[in-house]
Write a structure and sequence with these properties.
The chain is an alpha/beta fold. Helix content is about 40%, strand content about 15%. It has a single domain, classed as TIM Barrel (Alpha-Beta Barrel), CATH 3.20.20. The chain starts with a helix and ends with a helix.
């Protein structure tokens, strides 16, 4: 985007202009790693300073941070949920403090049976240790279920899917964490996955379907907007507010 367009988008959003969504649509953001590029690279990463700017921008627009396990997480027109898949160690080191500056709780989805993201191949990074997860929970952040070993759930049998979610659920309970939200690795799920999640008592689940969560979205497969390293603030505003409207207009 040009610098003039960047400025126009941010200005319009900051004054509650035409790029904002209607009140029936809810905003759920998806991040993975949060850390310096020198340590984490760009792959699935967002720089701490960018997360800070994005959180500050939304709070200035009047958005209030919510947890997915709240009884009524979307109890007002402008609510936002910041979710972080995989619970990378870098994320738990940086994101909680950043979000707390803006009064926002984070939702961190943990893979309980892994110590590093071996599914990332040669870009594997350490995952948060139990002490980091417990510390984040104690500070008011939410820890959710991201399965036990990060497998493609839709490729497994119903029994195997249940076991993946059940083991992760039990692992978090051993840490004193009662998970009430679930996130499916790779966005992979099917009807059996949703039955398993519901049977384990999960209030809400999130997928990798792109867009705002409208009232018709299933509570156990809510869509999100994935944020990338290269977004910056102008790209963030475009991705969150402008692109969804352009997609709907093109239908």
């Amino acid at each position: 985007m040009s610098s003039k367009l960047d400025s126009a988008i941010i200005w319009d959003a900051s004054r509650g202009g035409s790029v904002t969504q209607n009140s029936s649509a809810k905003l759920i953001l998806c991040y993975h790693k949060v850390g310096p590029q020198a340590e984490e690279g760009r792959f699935l990463n967002v720089a701490p300073a960018d997360l800070d700017r994005q959180a500050r921008f939304l709070t200035r627009l009047g958005y209030v941070g919510r947890r997915l396990d709240d009884e009524t997480p979307f109890d007002r027109p402008r609510c936002v949920v910041f979710t972080f898949d995989d619970a990378y160690a870098s994320t738990l080191h940086h994101a909680p403090e950043i979000l707390e500056r803006h009064g926002i709780p984070g939702v961190f989805f943990a893979v309980t049976g892994k110590t590093e993201s071996d599914w990332d191949g040669d870009r594997a990074r350490p995952l948060a240790e139990p002490a980091l997860l417990k510390a984040a929970a104690a500070r008011g952040h939410e820890i959710g279920n991201h399965s036990h070993t990060h497998r493609h759930l839709a490729k497994l049998s119903a029994a195997e899917q249940l076991e993946e979610l059940k083991q992760a659920h039990a692992g978090l309970e051993q840490l004193g964490i009662r998970a009430r939200s679930v996130c499916y690795p790779y966005g992979s799920f099917n009807h059996d996955t949703l039955i398993a999640a519901d049977g384990l008592g999960y209030r809400r689940g999130v997928s990798l379907a792109k867009g705002w969560a409208h009232s018709t979205a299933p509570r156990l497969a809510l869509p999100r907007i994935v944020i990338a390293y290269s977004d910056g603030l102008a790209g963030f505003v475009y991705r969150v507010f402008v692109r969804p409207k352009l997609r709907r207009a093109a239908r």
